Amino acid sequence: MSASDAHRTIETVWRMEAPKLIAGLARLTRDVGRAEELAQDALVAALKQWPEEGVPHNPAAWLMQVAKHRALDAARHEMMARRKQEEIGLDIASEGPAAPDLDEALDDEVGDDLLRLIFTACHPVLPKEARLALTLRLLGGLTTEEIARAFLVPEPTMAQRIVRAKKTLSDARVPYEVPAGAELGERLASVLEVVYLIFNEGYAATAGQDWVRPTLCEEALRLGRILVARAPQEPEVHGLVALMELQASRLRARIGPGGEPILLLDQNRARWDRLLIGRGLAALERAQQLAGALPGPYLLQAALAACHARARTAEETDWARIVALYAVLGRVAPSPIVELNRAVAVGMAEGPAAGLELVEALAAEPALKRYHLLPSVRGDLLSKLGRHREAAEAFDQAVALTRNVKERALMEERAATARTAADSLPK
């Protein structure tokens, strides 16, 4: 095998196995920063040896074995330095009255380790931006450069953010565990929020050259599926996975040949992924069974996505049901953005005038002051009412607020179309 082939293999194996490797090491060290360093040591060893000696038969096991040896060496060194058997330099004895065998400590079920790592990376002690960055770094297998590019910040800024996040977790002595009791609900909500934020940034990028970033959607889905496997009785976990599966089913249809956005009602539904739709609907059914009469926000959003997924054409969409679901969602998770989405649905179900009335009532909402979709929705409803000059002005406002290059081009096009329609009207 050539050196270039070996490096490609290493890159592939690393992306697949790094989260499991870091998770196992973090359980041993109780320090995600140290765990990542040990995993990186194993990667460096692979980069040195595999091009010369060939890729081992089981690359993942090779990486784990090297990382184990590094962890054992570090533990023994610190044990000798401190002369405290019970500490072993990494506080391993805190797991119980007797220190476990270090080799066995790294052989726990991978799914449990990954779940612990998710809850650690998404701990509320970290600000939301840090949770996002650390989750993508440790569990998404993305490089600091890739994460920085995804969120449009300089690489040094992102590197500092990740370093601070790891230090914060270490200083706060955050337990490397899945919490129990009341704390589980609080922490689970944080985990689900981070996973969905990652998905949303992939589904509709807030800024940059690309409107969608499928890699982020794929990473969020992978994390969601891990959560489902390890928390199978939590309805909101199933609800979030259902929502992401259903939304991801449209990714291929969301962009045109030049990367331009294609809005929902204009999409070619033959390009929707029927397998993902089937998976999403099954996850939604499971969430509904578990939730009973108390649906959570992710379940409700999945139910909204299912309305679109079940409609074979845009004309068959059950807008009345969508309006009703948004009304429930507005009570369960009140938000100006939910109300804006409800206004869109009302505009489709009851006519643009009814929708516009709701949108105008949201104009003074502070949370929507810089939200580009408020004037965009307003412009769309005004266009449908034949008020084209006002629509053009609304789309101009949306252009000024939009940071995504492709979406800005779409708004500029809609503003121009509205202005042309206005100029064609009798004076």
UniProtKB/TrEMBL annotation:
Cell division as a keyword of this entry, yes or no, is no
Reading the lineage from the top rank, the first entry is Bacteria
User: Which GO BP annotation is one of this protein's?
Assistant: DNA-templated transcription initiation
Q: Name one Pfam family in it.
A: DUF6596
| Keyword annotations from UniProtKB, A to Z | DNA-binding, Sigma factor, Transcription, Transcription regulation
The UniProt record lists the RNA polymerase sigma factor 70 region 4 type domain at: 118-169
Keyword Transcription regulation applies = yes
Q: Where is the RNA polymerase sigma-70 region domain?
A: 16-77
Q: Which family, according to UniProt?
A: Belongs to the sigma-70 factor family. ECF subfamily.
Record-given protein name? RNA polymerase sigma factor
Species annotation: Bosea thiooxidans
